[in-house]
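I am still getting used to backbone structure tokens and would like to learn alongside you. To get us started, please write out a protein record for me. Start from the sequence, derive the backbone structure tokens from it, and show both lines together. Once you have written the record down, we can walk along the chain together:
***
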Amino acid sequence: MRLRDNTYRRGGVARTEGEATAGRVRRRGGALALVGIVAALTLSLAACSGGSSTTTDPTAVDTAVISLTPGGGSTELTPLAGGAPQGAPTPGNTPANTAVAGTPASQAAPTTPPRGNDPLPPPASTGAEVPLTYFGPVASEVQDDARGRALVGPAQLLRAGTVDKNAFTVTLPLYRGQTGDGKSVWYILTDTTDKGQAEALGLNWSPKLIYADVGNAVQDARIEKDGSVTFLGGSVDFSPKRAVEPGDAPNAFPPKSAQPGSVGDKNYSPYIRLVNAGNQIYNAPVIASGVNANDLSFCNGNPDYDVVHDRVVSICPSGKDNGGGTVTLQMTPIFSFGKPASYISMEASDAMVATLDKGTFAPVIGDLPVARDDSFASATERLFVTANGPTGSDNPQRQGLNSALTDLGPDGKPLPPIHVIGGIPTVALDYSPAWDLNLGEWTKEAIDKGYRSRLIDEFQYLGMVERGFITGPGGKPYGSTGIVVNCPIVMRFL
């Protein structure tokens, strides 16, 4: 079912993509024709440089990653990473290429999507003679969920909450727990190794996370009689002020300085093992700690980033004991196997990367083994980050860290880097929220030959690596940087 408010809701409730649903399937003469896929996939490739920019808007979506470097902090920054996906439409701002019900195609708005829709797919009605209201439901919405979600169309993967495509946010249940010494901990749940609970709670199922418990990257926790969770590992300090100073043009990346907005101690990890519940592992990123519900009452937005995670857009605790209430978080746009998608950037093992991602610096998750990708005993999946992709706010090929540090959206906020990731649920079997950051750099030869562009697929990316057009930084061999980022997947838009 297609809803008018571009909102995807949890569980069996209809979730839709409103005007921006691409890849809808319709029948003509008994044959299935995919409409809108080509338009969506023209958002490809990557390119170069940057200058420097600053911003103090804490809700800007961040960059997602990378580094040969990083650092810690909170929200008074000169970010880069940010804002809704390039050109994501804002409430009250209907995309120019949206056909209104009852409006003849000849009178519909132009078919060129505003840059705000990048990298979301355009309406399936683009170029058609009928408006979107005449299109049937997308294939991913068929009743047979196991079959349907594997087909083309939008699919909410983290079904525990509600996705707002226009604002590019996800609203999730807020939980309250405590540390071993009684300090309050406010957290969310996004992934688990327990398949049954993943289905019951609307979380992502990640079998690979079972292999995370081989060093110090998983902290112990236990469930109490009241249903709350006691965290037996480390804690997070949310008081630092996030700050970024881009490098000199044309190479804004790496930045001259980077201070994360929140910093975990040596034992803090979002990955917890419930020692009295089958030793299952959950991804439970901490949103705030050491404060009570009154300190977190920012139901209408404008939260205090001295006490909450920098990706919080609004937070509204309610209820007793183990919490209640919700928290709304800014998502980051990415591509997985050519499909536009989103995740939330929560932690990074590197300070600079955490700063760029507006995440928590959690060095201990760097203890996860990397560079093993989809092999036995690997807890991570690969994240493909480009340092020197194409730049320019209006450039449809825009991508990478230089762009994220210099390019601004229509709202004046930094644009996200639009990285490429490996497998996600419904597309592959190897999903993990723990991403092994691989950093690439376009070579001078590739740039001179005009090959540098936006890449949207893992194997497309690796093909450029194999041909020598993308290398590691400074011409070094391409591969893992050793940096791990915790970015739970939220939604697939095609």
In short: The chain has seven helices and 30 strands. The CA atoms of residues 72 and 248 lie 21 Å apart. Residues 458-466 form the longest helix (9 residues). The radius of gyration is 21 Å.
